[in-house]
Amino acid sequence: MSDPFSLSGRTALVTGANTGIGQAIAVSLAQAGAAVVCAGRSAMDETLQRIEDAGGRARPLALDLSDPMHAAGVVESQDDLDILVNNAGIIRRADSVDFTEAEWDDVLDVNLKAVFFLSQAFARTLLARNSGGSIVNIASVLSFQGGIRVPSYTASKGGVAGLTRLLACEWASKGINVNAIAPGYIATNNTEALRNDPDRNQAILDRIPAGRWGDPADIGDAAVFLASPAAKYIHGTILSVDGGWLAR
Fold first, then answer.
1. In this predicted model, what pLDDT tens digit does every residue of 190-225 receive, in sequence order?
2. SS in 3 state form for the chain?
3. C-alpha–C-alpha distance, residues 96 and 105, integer Å
4. Within-domain flag for 203
5. Does residue 69 fall inside a structural domain?
6. Per-residue pLDDT tens for 42-93?
7. Is 185 a catalytic residue?
8. Which candidate, 168, 238, 244, 229, places its Cα nearest to that of 32?
């Protein structure tokens, strides 16, 4: 009997794969059998080494999502892809009364515009060769909550959730699964300052029913599931991987 969670014979593109959640997703997909294209602006040496150490296969791809339209063209050149993980994202913090147009546009370009146009380029490739595939977007618990001092980030992640549902409605009948993961508080470089602040760290832990920060591998494993045949009848779902944060 075939393994419904196996990604053997498939090729995945993961954006922002150089560190944190993106790196964990790339490693998890490789461990599940996929060949992984690790994309981003920064060097991928560490991610490629981790995948190689795990017995997987990977290759790097230079991809600057600050220009979403150029990035979409790069993706179109990767004609062997079966899986797209839109993970790359940035954040800007400031009071809303002080937030600038540049801070707004920078985040929306990477976090939302690039997600749409990369997904569009990916879907065009799949449709041209008459094959199915999977898109996994990385949303956020702020797809459901407001947050503070991150207006463009919250808007972008709310947009990712809505876009995920829309694309699922359009492409499910064409064999393309589109879903998203909404990570909670994950122990990465981006959250190091919060974890090093005793008061903030404790306040966050008190809110998480699981009683711990998430590990990037928790998101990687969820991505494997959504990209695998086991999720073939799952479309337009925003899967919260948050230790129960949203349940409280």
1. 888 889 999 999 999 999 999 999 999 999 999 999
2. CCCCCCCCCCEEEEECCCCHHHHHHHHHHHHCCCEEEEEECCCCHHHHHHHHHCCCEEEEEECCCCCHHHHHHHHHCCCCCCEEEECCCCCCCCCHHHCCHHHHHHHHHHHHHHHHHHHHHHHHHHHHCCCCEEEEEECCHHHCCCCCCCHHHHHHHHHHHHHHHHHHHHHHHHCEEEEEEEECCECCHHHHHHHHCHHHHHHHHHHCCCCCCECHHHHHHHHHHHHCHHHCCCCCCEEEECCCHHHC
3. 14
4. no
5. yes
6. 999 999 999 999 999 999 999 999 999 999 999 888 889 999 999 999 999 9
7. no
8. 229
Residue carrying structure tokens 């808007």: 155
**pTM given for the model:** 0.97
Q: Is the Cβ–Cβ distance between 27 and 19 less than 8 Å?
A: no
Structural Rg of the chain based on CA atoms? 17
Q: Which of 162, 164, 142 is nearest to 153 (CA)?
A: 142
CA 227 to CA 230: how far, in whole Å?
8
Q: What is the signed CA dihedral for 155, 234, 176, 72, rounded to 10 degrees? A: 20
CATH number of 231's domain: 3.40.50.720
Which among 117, 153, 225, 245 is annotated as catalytic? 153
230 belongs to a structural domain: yes
With beta carbons less than 8 A apart as the criterion, state whether 189 and 217 touch.
no
Q: Is residue 194 part of a domain?
A: no
Q: Which of 223, 27, 168, 182 lies closest to 89 in space, CA to CA?
A: 182
